[in-house]
Design goal:
Length: about 500
């Protein structure tokens, strides 16, 4: 027991990742076996559909073979109830009116609630921690000029690192050409299996109006912003609250600042308690993800996956280490050592917002004061999506190559601009990169249904790019602190 307590947390999390992946592989979900909820003589019944060759949608030309079970699963999710004919041994055997379907649970997916609970425990800390840290940070700054200076530098850093990230992604995608590495026969099969309806409900959610975006930063109701988790509006309200505290009597403001400072310290201490559960939560999350995800599609998209991973590696170890080295007060070794817990949680949850409380704790151990981290990190979790931007650059070129399209300099510059703008206005939650990608594809006239080609591995890459998003936030916080403390104004 003593030996277990002496093991560092990041090592426990790493062990949990490996064991979770093994558990998920052993107890993987069978994609062609599902539980159907259907109507039977005006009553609802359930049945396991396992022994089938083909499923045909009645009164249509749509049908799915056993190898297309995932496509059928998605079809039912968008169109229900549906009448289907299930073929067994190539004979029409069963006629059902399906209301809904779900995959058959395994010993790995049964653990999912444990992982969900862990994410919720972290997520419920994020908003009170952001509010308290920002108010204390803004109120602790000497004047509005200093706040404006920190805010301006933070935004410039985030803009620069995101632009570099998308540049790395596009450069590697052009150099490696992952779409051209796939044989023509497999390309044809991939294109024929693309779901032509995939963009219908996603693209409608993603339109950027820069002026409207700026106006929407100001909340009508700050409590509604808090309840809905609108991080930019929360940041605006908290900063305004903190600044205003500096204009009232010190006797009154000191009481408020002391209260929120206590709230911030309490939230950080709660993070310490919750992190005792981290290995168990990580194990459950990874086991369920691997069980659902499987490894089959990796062989087809191996060049695409490797290109994204290489880009993320370069962004983490070249760009961020350079930022820390040039502007920070700590060594690269200390930065890499302290950020490990946040990276592990980011990988497991695929959410920089859920990881934010852990990122706060890690950055605090690097010596970054709350008045800096309290402003830089919440803003970064909202607008700094370097890993996502890099992945979108690779994905855009990859999909274009599959379709046989060549993107010229103008189109690639359009991708850079659109990806940077998109990263500012999207939520720090799992899967949002796909929504952003639709808009980027449309900006350069690539068919949005091409997203279906990469959906199978998106969850895996989402986990990896969250590591980059979290690391980027921490690196900029360290850089801003270094500039403020050493007076390196000439370097910006």
């Amino acid at each position: 027991m003593k030996l277990l307590k002496s093991v560092p947390l990041h090592v426990k999390i790493l062990i949990a990742l490996v064991l979770g992946a093994i558990w998920g592989s052993v107890f993987s979900v069978q994609s062609d076996v599902f539980i159907a909820n259907y109507e039977n003589n005006s009553n609802q019944s359930e049945s396991i559909i396992a022994d089938w060759d083909k499923i045909e949608i009645q009164n249509s030309d749509v049908s799915y073979s056993r190898s297309e079970a995932n496509k059928f699963f998605n079809y039912v999710g968008k169109n229900k109830p549906i009448n289907v004919v299930i073929y067994q041994q190539n004979k029409a055997e069963i006629l059902l009116t399906i209301e809904s379907i779900k995959k058959k649970e395994t010993f790995a997916t049964y653990l999912r609630p444990i992982g969900t609970l862990f994410i919720k425990l972290l997520s419920f800390l994020a908003i009170p921690l952001v509010i308290a840290s920002l108010i204390v940070g803004a109120a602790s700054l000497d004047n509005i000029k200093k706040l404006g200076r920190i805010g301006g530098r933070t935004f410039l850093f985030y803009l620069a690192t995101t632009t570099i990230a998308i540049g790395i992604g596009l450069s590697l995608a052009n150099l490696i050409a992952p779409g051209k590495q796939i044989p023509d026969s497999i390309k044809s099969e991939m294109l024929s299996s693309a779901d032509n309806n995939i963009d219908a409900d996603i693209s409608s959610k993603m339109e950027i109006d820069l002026l409207e975006f700026v106006v929407d930063i100001v909340p009508k109701n700050p409590f509604k912003a808090m309840s809905s988790g609108n991080m930019l509006q929360i940041v605006f309200f908290s900063v305004m609250f903190g600044i205003t505290l500096t204009f009232i009597e010190k006797e009154k403001s000191s009481v408020v600042i002391s209260f929120f400072s206590g709230v911030s310290d309490t939230m950080i201490k709660m993070v310490d308690f919750i992190m005792y559960l981290a290995p168990y939560g990580v194990f459950a999350l990874i086991a369920a993800t691997i069980a659902d995800f499987g490894y089959e599609i990796i062989s087809t998209l191996v060049w695409y996956i490797l290109t994204v991973i290489l880009g993320l590696f370069l962004q983490n170890f070249l760009v961020y280490n350079s930022v820390v080295k040039l502007f920070g007060r700590i060594s690269i070794k200390k930065f890499l050592s302290e950020i490990r817990n946040a990276q592990a949680i980011g990988f497991s949850t695929s959410s920089s917002a859920a990881t934010l409380p852990v990122t706060f704790e890690c950055v605090e151990k690097m010596g970054v004061p709350k008045q800096v981290s309290g402003f830089v990190l919440p803003l970064g979790a909202t607008i700094n999506m370097d890993g996502t931007a890099l992945y979108q650059g690779v994905a855009t070129v990859f999909i274009a190559q599959i379709y046989g399209m060549d993107l010229g300099l103008t189109e690639q510059l359009t991708v850079v601009l659109t990806a940077v703008l998109a990263s500012i206005g999207t939520a720090p939650v799992p899967g949002v990169g796909i929504i952003m990608l639709v808009m980027i594809l449309q900006s350069v006239n690539i068919p949005p249904e091409g997203i279906a080609l990469i959906m199978g591995v998106d969850r895996l890459l989402d986990m990896m790019r969250t590591i980059t998003n979290v690391s980027g936030d921490a690196a900029v916080a360290v850089a801003i602190d270094g500039i403020e403390s050493k007076g390196k104004q000439a370097l910006i």
